[in-house]
Specification:
- The complex is a heterodimer of chains A (about 110) and B (about 250).
- Chain A has 4 helices and no strands.
- By secondary structure, chain A is an all-alpha fold.
- The longest helix of chain A is centred in the last third of the chain and has 25 residues.
- Chain B is elongated, with a radius of gyration of 23 Å.
- In chain B, helix 4 packs antiparallel against helix 5.
- Chain B has a single domain, classed as Four Helix Bundle (Hemerythrin (Met), subunit A), CATH 1.20.120.80.
- About 5% of the residues of chain B have low confidence.
- The chains are: A mainly alpha (about 110), B mainly alpha (about 250).
Chain lengths: ~110, ~250
């Protein structure tokens, strides 16, 4: 462990933009963890309320918010300096969208079957 | 951080983890990280195929998927979600410990992650055992009352539906639900087993002092993998357990 590295380790929480590797603080990680637990509680509670078709929308919205918290903070995408990471994440979501949207566009419009 | 040439030369001799075909540690780290993200993008498509199959059949067999979904134990699913979220936090703390060069903290958080992963798999195995007991995995012999799942279990929730939807109740549709349930949660559990094995290997190497602030890429990439598996479950839990509960 060089002095250089340990110095950046200690100062990173004040000035994360000066280091290439983001070191998450315990406080912010625990905050995200609590938010994920709260999201789980809310989604379970909402499942027992009859909202009709909105049950699915509410559940998937909460799931997407939780997934975003994990990707941005736990997976450090928010702090990465590597722009390719964002491109790969966006591409993955876009391809998934193509897979789901075009498949459903087919299956939901086969009215003759 | 390591951009100045002097620092590069210094580190090239200092850090044994820097491979000769990379100019700098940062370049090596970025290449490994990008490779991991491309792998995860591929994993999104892999699970995406199963999510798409679920979507198509849920659209087609809407009423029976609702009835079949109510057979799952929402408490076990919720507990497992909490366990996985906690394991994601322990992974974050493990990566942090590696970045700060705290060897025993790193080993501790990796072992904690393995423990939580095993708790998840244990609960999942218990759910599977219950499903096998009730023969939810097999509907082919549903005329034989002893050997297979009783479709009458599905009827109480079917009775809440309008008459028109109820008449489509078909055990084979519920069978499709449980096939997808086993395929999706099974593939997710397989990823968990691989992750637990990976963290076991990393915990051993971390205990040997292999990782520190200069080199912790394997810890970080295994962490990315684990978080991805967590995200898959974040979607599986509402889709399989929750969204048809109100019916």
């Amino acid at each position: 462990m060089s002095d250089h590295n340990s110095a950046s380790g200690h100062t990173s929480e004040q000035t994360p933009e000066h280091v290439s590797e983001h070191i998450s603080s315990v406080g912010s990680s625990v905050t995200i963890w609590l938010a994920l637990l709260a999201g789980t509680g809310i989604t379970v509670a909402a499942a027992f309320i009859n909202l009709g078709p909105f049950n699915t929308i509410v559940a998937l919205t909460i799931a997407t918010i939780k997934a975003m918290l994990v990707v941005l903070f736990f997976m450090h995408v928010k702090y990465t300096h590597e722009k390719m990471t964002g491109l790969v994440v966006a591409s993955a979501i876009f391809w998934l969208f193509i897979l789901l949207a075009l498949s459903m566009a087919d299956y939901t419009t086969r009215l003759w079957r | 951080m390591h951009t100045s040439q002097a620092a590069v030369d210094e580190h090239a001799h200092e850090n044994p983890a820097l491979l000769h075909h990379f100019a700098t540690e940062e370049q090596q780290k970025n290449a490994a990280s990008l490779g991991m993200w491309v792998f995860l993008a591929q994993e999104v498509m892999f699970f995406g195929g199963m999510f798409c199959a679920y979507l198509v059949y849920r659209y087609k067999y809407f009423a029976d998927f609702g009835s079949a979904s109510q057979q799952l134990d929402i408490r076990l699913g919720a507990i497992n979600t909490v366990v996985l979220i906690c394991s994601s936090l322990t992974v974050v703390l493990a990566v942090r410990a590696a970045q700060l060069g705290k060897r025993m903290a790193l080993v501790f958080w990796l072992v904690a992650t393995i423990f939580l992963g095993l708790v998840f798999l244990g609960i999942k195995a218990d759910e599977y055992a219950e499903k096998f007991e009730k023969h939810h995995e097999k509907f082919e012999n549903h005329h034989d009352p002893g050997a297979s799942f009783s479709y009458h279990e599905l009827l109480p929730s079917q009775e809440k539906l309008p008459e028109a939807e109820r008449q489509y109740a078909d055990p084979h549709h519920a069978e499709m639900y449980f096939s997808l349930y086993f395929a999706m949660t099974g593939m997710h559990a397989l990823h968990m087993i691989i992750g637990v094995g990976l963290f076991g290997f990393l915990a051993y190497k971390a205990w040997r002092g292999k990782y520190g602030p200069d080199y912790y890429t394997p810890i970080e990439n295994a962490g990315l993998y684990w978080h991805f598996v967590d995200i898959v479950w974040i979607y599986l839990f509402p889709l399989l357990y929750l969204i048809d509960r109100h019916r």
